[in-house]
Amino acid sequence: EELYRRLRVSLEEITPDFEIIMVEDCGGDRSWQIICELADNDSCVKGFQLSRNFGQHAATICGISKASGDWIVTIDDDLEQSPEDIPILYARAREGFALVYGVYPQRSHVWWRNMTSAVARHLFRRAIPSLNFAYTSLRIIDRNIAKSLCDFDSPFPFIDGYLSWLTNNYTTVDVRHDTRAHGHSNYNFRKLFIHTMNIFVTFSDLPLKIASWIGLGSFLIGILGFGWILLARMLGGITVSGFASIMAAIILFGGIQLLILGIFGEYIGRMNFKSSKKP
Questions:
Q1: Of 40, 50, 205, 230, which is least surrounded by CB within 10 A?
Q2: Residue 101: helix, strand or coil by DSSP?
Q3: Residue 114's pLDDT is what?
Q4: How sure is the predictor about 181, in pLDDT bands with cuts at 50, 70 and 90?
Q5: Which one-letter DSSP state was computed for residue 278?
Q6: Dihedrals φ, ψ of 38, to 5°?
Q7: How far apart are the first and last CA of the chain?
Q8: How far apart are CA 60 and CA 57, in angstroms?
C-alpha cells in the first residue's frame, strides 16, 4: 500500500495519464490480495499474477508486455528504490536518452551481497563488454526499446543483457538506496549464483573462446611435440620400443581433438545467440 501511495504522488508530478502495473510472481504472501484491492479502488492500477514463480526478470518483462505508456519505468516493490526518484529519471530521459538507470553511490544490502555483486559485475565487464556496466532494476525505458524485450524467449531472461543488445543510448543518475521497509529479500546466495551463471552462459561466449584458444594451443604444442619425438627417435635419443609412436600419437591427436572441440564451441556460441534472438 505504501508503494502504491508514493507511486501515485510521484507520477502525478509528471502527468495525470499514467498506469501502475503490479506483477505478482507467486511470492507466497498476501501481495495478490492487496493488488486486487488496489485495482478495485483505482482504475490506474492493473494487476497480473503469474501461474508460478518465474523470477524477477521474467515477471518484469511480463509487466512491460502489458504496459501502454510512451515511457516505462521498472521498480522493485520493497521500497529500497524510492518512487520519488522517478521524476528525476524521466527528466534525464527527456534529454534524448532511450534508457536511464538509477544507480546507487552506496548500497544498503548486507556486506556479502555487495561484495558478490561487485565481483560479478567485474567479471561481466570482462566477459560481456557490451553490457551496460552500471545497471539496476530501477530504469526508465523508451516504449519502442522496452517492447522489444518481449521478443526474446530465453528461459533464462536477463533484461539488462537484452537492453545492451538493443541500445547504447543510455545514461545513469545517482539515486539513494534505502533499506527494505518490510520482510527480507528472496535472493539468497544460491539464487544469485545460479542467476550469474545463467547470464554468463546466455550472454557471453568468452568461455567458448577460451576453449578455442586452448584447443589451438594444444594442437600447436602437439605438432611440435610430435616433431620432437620423431627427431629424438631418429637421433637415438629414445630407445624404448613403442614409446615414440605412442607418445607422438597421443600428443598429436589430443591436440587435434581439442582444436575440433574449440571449433564446435564457436559454432555453439553462434547458435546460442541465434536462439536467444540477438538482433
A1: 40
A2: strand
A3: 60
A4: low
A5: -
A6: -65, -40
A7: 39
A8: 5
In this structure, the number of other CB atoms found within 10 A of the CB of residue 266 comes to 15
Which contiguous run of DSSP H or E holds residue 41?
Answer: helix 31-41
Asked if 14 and 87 count as a contact pair (C-beta separation under 8 A), the reply is yes
Output the CA torsion sign for 90, 96, 100, 106.
negative
C-alpha to C-alpha distance for 82 and 129, rounded to whole angstroms: 30
Residue with cell 557471453: 204
Give, to the nearest 10 degrees, the angle between helix 56-66 and helix 159-166: 50
| Rounded Cα gap, residues 139 and 60, in angstroms | 11
pLDDT digits over 46-97, tens only? Answer: 999 999 988 899 999 999 999 999 999 999 998 989 999 999 999 999 999 9
Burial of 103 (0-12, 13-18, 19+ CB in 10 A): middle
Taking alpha carbons only, the member of 145, 138, 140 closest to residue 94 is 140
Report H helices in 80-205.
86-93, 111-127, 143-148, 159-166, 189-203
